[in-house]
Amino acid sequence: MYVREIMSGIEVQSRKKKFREIYFITQGQVEMYDSSAVHFMNLPSGCIFGDYFVLFNLDSNIAFKVASNEENIPAKFMACDRKVVDELCALYPQTAENLKQRSLEKRAIYLHYMLKAS
Fold first, then answer.
1. Phi, psi for 52 (deg, rounded to 5)
2. Is the CB of residue 30 less than 8 Å from the CB of residue 12?
3. For the chain, how are helix, strand and coil distributed in percent, rounded to 5?
4. Structural domains counted in the chain
5. For 11-28, how does the pLDDT look when each residue is reduced to its tens digit (9 = 90+)?
6. What is the CATH number of the domain that holds 73?
7. Residue 39: which domain range?
8. Staple partner for 19: which of 25, 33, 44, 53, CB 3.0–4.6 Å?
């Protein structure tokens, strides 16, 4: 894992692209936008995102952007490269299945809020 700092207002992941990393938010918030660029949810510090798209090798249908803040303080993330995730999943298949199940549960929550906002 390694640290990433991204300035407020900058897109972390765009739609229609594959995630290269799983992100753990350690400081700041991330805004989520649907295919119509409608903001539907914020992820606060302590959340993980990108896991669903990495674990299932899918293009993102959600844009993720660092939430703007008055102090213009960058968001901080711990990031894990998809190759490392793939290697760990191959070594620990039961844990990989648990991670996939959890990411599917989070995905259902995202979809609920996405539909509510549209």
1. -60, -45
2. yes
3. 35, 35, 35
4. 1
5. 999 999 999 999 999 999
6. 2.60.120.10
7. 2-117
8. 53
